[in-house]
């Protein structure tokens, strides 16, 4: 029996089976089993023999349950085994249609159903199987989607690792060239020193030699040419005195030219499945070094937010002055490309070539030089946006209910994750015990393993912690400061959080003049006292694609004329296994 479910799903256009011209199929004749266009249904099909008794249906209705049931002729089913016999029952024991002869010969004692009932049961079972198939297909589609996400994520990790290797290669080459140049300079200086000492002694030998030769020549002339014995004797005495004179001994010991001994490079890095999880008690094994390349004074009083874009573009923000600037760093000054008077909370980065910012609305804003402020599709209503972070795949937004004005206020605190198209959303709000994950989220970043780092303020005095979540929202750990830096007198008051291209998480502890550095699993690797580098009040950090570290600073409230400083630094890290 024919049970057509979806003629309209065919991927190849089917022409009318009568005229073979019109592709717009609208009708099907059950008896002829033909698909027809509207014209052939009215003009051609009526000419068929007994056409008036045929059943013609709109193809949209073909295969529907009521249609099939009404048109199936259960009393005309011929038996395949016994000619001339018509099937009268359905053997549920053998799962076959049977005629009277079948029953008497092979199905005696079996269980039987009316064909209509058997058909209904089969149809119901088919519908259940189809639902199961649909669920399985959806599950496979979800798996395909997850596999694509994993593939994209791994490709992103590959690109980051490849870029890190390339950057490290350039850095190593530069370091080797600098070291070789230093060795050559030292060798040249050593050579010049030795040559100068030798040449000094050579000059002394020349002077003494010439003096002796002169007295010898003079004496010889007096003997051979002079007629005066007095001159002869005097010349001999002078030569004798010259020869017998003692002179300062020559220096024959000099500093020797050093020999170059090549050294083998022990390691330049490795590809490891390594998460620093065992570093918590081995901070001394992680070494980090900063070198200030350039220092700039901006026109802002403070630099509260910082984003390093492409093509040497940098965005900075002073929340107190309510000003955002797009700048370029020149040789010895800051060039302002554009400036916006706007009150914002945070800068998330660029997406679709526009800057994405939060300004306390229910949605994010795009900031564009030509169009100004444009509403984005990232909307978390009824929550208000507070901070934002953009990765290669996602946009993370920390938002709160309008009633939340401080850590002790009542209301929701939520971190929302969107894909770039804002078509997929995931909320992080409650832990496994149905308790709020956050108190007052004021910063957010994400690492390549998709762990989420939320800078969370706990008090109105901005004492805080870092909440580290896995991609599914499960708490991995909390970071509440470093005992060697923070204490009840100097509490941990984080002001900014950002991740580096090599998956390190930097947190500014401005009042303690400290940068805290965490692994991608939230473990403390080290801390940096920025005041040792002359960097005071580090308020925010950012990273260029090449790995340069930028530190934006607040200025002292005691000095009205002081401006916010911006530092560009080279950062080098080394993890030493013990």
CATH class descriptor name of the largest domain = Mainly Beta
* Share in helix: 25-40%
How many distinct helices? 5
What Rg do the Cα atoms give? 45 Å
Q: What does the main sheet amount to?
A: 4 strands, antiparallel
Strand content: 25-35%
Query: Can you tell me the number of structural domains?
Result: 3
The CATH homologous superfamily of the largest domain is named TolB, C-terminal domain
Number of strands: 30
Q: At the third CATH level, what is the topology name of the largest domain? A: Neuraminidase
Structural class: alpha+beta
Mean pLDDT: 84
- The shape, in one word, is elongated
Low-confidence spans: pLDDT under 50, at least 5 residues? 1-10, 65-70, 274-284
Keywords: Metal-binding, Zinc, Zinc-finger
InterPro entries: 6-blade_b-propeller_TolB-like, TRIM45/56/19-like, Znf_B-box
GO molecular function, one term: zinc ion binding
Pfam families: zf-B_box
SSE order and pairing:
Blueprint: E1 27-29, E2 34-36, H1 38-43, E3 56-58, H2 65-71, E4 89-91, E5 96-98, H3 100-106, E6 112-113, H4 115-225, H5 229-244, E7 286-297, E8 305-308, E9 313-318, E10 323-329, E11 334-341, E12 346-351, E13 354-358, E14 363-368, E15 372-379, E16 384-390, E17 394-400, E18 413-419, E19 425-428, E20 441-446, E21 452-457, E22 464-469, E23 475-479, E24 496-499, E25 505-509, E26 514-518, E27 524-529, E28 538-543, E29 549-553, E30 565-575
Antiparallel strand pairs: 1-2, 1-3, 4-5, 4-6, 7-30, 8-9, 9-10, 10-11, 12-13, 13-14, 14-15, 16-17, 17-18, 18-19, 20-21, 21-22, 22-23, 24-25, 25-26, 26-27, 28-29, 29-30
